[in-house]
Amino acid sequence: MVDALTKFRRYKRGALWGGAVGCTILFVATGYLLRQLNVVFNPVPWASVQVISSFLSFSIAANVLVRFLGTDNRTSLILGSTFGLIGFIQLAGIVELHYRLSTNAMRLHVSLPLFSWMIGQTLLAVFLLLAFPIEKWLPWPRQRKKTVFAVMSVVGAAGYLIATTFLALLSKLATNPGRVLPQPSDLVPAGIFLAATLVLYRNSYRNRCAFDAMLVWVAGMNAVCHLVASESVQLLDVPAMTAQLLNTGSYVVLTGATLVDNVRLFGEVRDRAISDSLTGLANYRQLVDVLQTELERSGRTNRPFSILLMDLDGLKEINDTHGHLTGSRAICRVANVLRLHSRSLDTAARYGGDEFALILPETDKKAARQAATRIRKHLASEEEVPQLSLSIGVATYPESGASVQLLLDAADQELYSVKMLSKKPRSSRQLPLGL
Q1: CATH 3.30.70.270 describes domain 284-421
Q2: How far apart are the first and last CA of the chain?
Q3: pTM, rounded to two decimals
Q4: Distance between CA atoms of 271 and 286, rounded to whole angstroms?
Q5: How far is CA 209 from the centre of its chain?
């Protein structure tokens, strides 16, 4: 069995590398066929695509940095900083293109590849390959300012080293239309992007969110971009323009992924702001908001609504006898009963430590008492130990009051009376003020 598994892994690894080599040959051949078209584009479309790419880079950087601020995900900080720097490099590429067209317009066929294009693309390739290892190496996981400084320093230093390297090799990067690969320099970022694609594909982190999942596609699309660009013999020919469009397309894909992740993140933040962390029910803040909404609605329609204020009996004794984990479980059991045996339009909330509330729209006092009896029965029918019971107070708009505070006070007074009648001491409670 072990031998079979080992053989399968070797076969899978070999298939991956074989596929990578096959795709490399295929896309280089595609670039060669595109080269035969002998079409040169106007600089305006190229510059327009470059501007779009730069602003997409800034958008990706901003969205990913928002994700870092919300989750402290340091991989997001690394890649966000990288895309921010790439945005500035791409804007510099437009200036470079304008300068080269104005000073060397008659020699485009022997022109070097855009210096800023190669720097930006190589920088992206390096950090797609190394972002996750660097994230593990970074110190100060709980010190945000030091982490930001360290990441900015690493990205800036990498950009400087890549720029000086290409500057030192500038004389060796000239395009040679007579070779099979007119621009072999493009194979450097292509190889790094291809390695990043394989590494990201095997990385378990890629299933965490849309952004991480799309990094594989971004690396792959940019690898194809440079394989095609290696067949470019003129600055604005078909392979060069195709490469630029592929690069921009990869940024579009990643921008969409960052937006999806941020929508999800903001939804989680909103849910945490209005829900109780232990039970998942609405918290006190959401309870007051829903009560105020019901007061306004019922004031317009002249129809009643009710609120049940509930207290879990004997929680202190449960904690003392069975432990606090069982006590927390008891609170969750009550929450489950409220969640499962309430209408979809009702709002269940955790009012305090062992207190709950249930808002019942379109419900008079008689129907509210029936709902309270039904909740007690469902809780009493549970076989789990310890057996739980609730004391419940009822208040109804408008007879019990016409404000949030009056309704809560009325329900609390009835709750107190119920507990006194059952000869159980009332647990210490203090209603929030300022309503």
Answers
A1: yes
A2: 69
A3: 0.69
A4: 10
A5: 6
